[in-house]
Amino acid sequence: MSGITTSSVELLSPFALGDLELQNRLVMAPLTRNRAGDGNVPTDLNVEYYGQRASAGLIITEAAQISPQGVGYPSTPGIHTSAQVAGWRRVVDAVHARNGRIFLQLWHVGRISHPSLQPDNAQPVAPSAIRPAGEAVTYEGMKAFETPRALRADELPGIVADYARAARHARDAGFDGVEIHAANGYLLDEFLRDATNIRDDAYGGSVENRMRLLQEVVEAVTQIWPAQRVGVRLSPENSFNDIRDSDPQATFGAVADMLSRYQLAYLHVVEGDMMSGERKVDYGEIKRRFAGIYMANNGYTKARAEQALHTGMADLIAIGKLFIANPDLPQRFADNAELNEPDTSTFYGGDARGYTDYPALTQKRKTA
Ligand SMILES: Cc1cc2nc3c(=O)[nH]c(=O)nc-3n(C[C@H](O)[C@H](O)[C@H](O)COP(=O)(O)O)c2cc1C
């Protein structure tokens, strides 16, 4: 953003995100933790976890399925049943009670699923019938991915309607906004990138066609929410979930141009490849092409975050793993305090251990 003085781009100073006042520019990145309850409903433990992290300027929830077809992992929460909406409302209330802000991430996994996770044991769906390398996580353990079924064009309006319904449910649950998950190899990203989309209809081929489904989803969701409460997440060169694009700079530059038309809350970008650590795309160019707030993510520390803000490379910084291990991350950054180390063995699934038992600084001091 132009015209902003250095003192106003401090990481831990308040920030106006559209009409929403954030306590700071530090965002908790979306983090799947596989600890939802029966019926993929958020539980008391999930309420406690998010409440503990309410000092983030903004929390983006773990990805939440928009429909039963959107499910790709065990015990991930949904936003398509009334019980799920009620569960999320308790999460939102806990965050709001501590003066936090929270957006829900809207998710359809596309081909990153398995028949055992799908209604009626159906094949997972995708833009094209291309099987991802690797294995699905199922309730019965890891299983080889199967070849997905290519969606017919006449099914796409139903998927857009599922996003709209999920967005309405998020509003009913009291969220401050929603983030459309178009990153990390899931359905919308599968449409965007040319290794997974070889369709020859209006949704494949040119970049304009490949981003048509995302655009339709953005249009549908911004009918439900004011655009300033809707963000979009992209990951131009992330190869997680076996996905690639032959020209990410051009593809995602065009996506940034397209998204600029909507006055969205922000564009959230996973910079680089989470798998290889490579970073070839010029994110400065993507940021320049997007008219609005740019949220950067992937490997940010306090020093890197401050540098990105001060050099104009980002407006907001999203942090994932450090927020898992440090519920009071903004306070720790403010104090230059020591950080808890994330325990990767408890990332996905389990109980309170490695979830709600990371100590805050005050707890540590009390027990020391
Ligand atoms: C345990 C775990 C779960 C994740 N779940 C999601 C998710 O639900 N949605 C998403 O967009 N990204 C997800 N990610 C990616 C993170 O949001 C983030 O992009 C990544 O951790 C890099 O940021 P960091 O270096 O600050 O951790 C996940 C990452 C981890 C480690």
- Report the mean per-residue pLDDT as an integer: 96
- Large-scale geometry: globular
Strand order of the largest sheet: 3-4-5-10-11-12-13-14
Tell me the number of helical segments per DSSP (H or I, 4 or more residues long).
12
Proportion of helical residues: 25-40%
Rg, please? 19 Å
Q: Secondary-structure element sequence? A: EEEHEHEEEEEHEHHHEHEHEHEHHH
| CATH superfamily annotation | Aldolase class I
CATH topology value: TIM Barrel
Strand content: 15-25%
Question: How many DSSP-defined strands?
Answer: 14
Low-confidence stretches: 1-7
* Major β-sheet annotation: 8 strands, parallel, barrel
Give the count of structural domains.
1
Class computed from helices, strands and strand pairing? alpha/beta
What gap, in angstroms, lies between the N and C termini? 44 Å
Describe how the helices and strands are arranged.
Layout: E1 15-17, E2 20-22, E3 26-28, H1 44-52, E4 58-65, H2 82-97, E5 102-107, E6 125-126, E7 135-138, E8 141-144, E9 149-150, H3 156-172, E10 177-181, H4 187-192, H5 207-210, H6 212-224, E11 230-234, H7 248-259, E12 266-270, H8 283-289, E13 294-297, H9 302-310, E14 316-319, H10 321-325, H11 329-335, H12 361-367
Parallel strand pairs: 3-4, 3-14, 4-5, 5-10, 6-9, 10-11, 11-12, 12-13, 13-14
Antiparallel strand pairs: 1-2, 7-8
Helix pairs in contact: 1-2, 3-6, 7-8
Bound molecules: flavin mononucleotide.
Residues 29-32, 62-63, 105, 181, 183-184, 233, 270, 297-300, 319-321, 347 line the site of flavin mononucleotide.
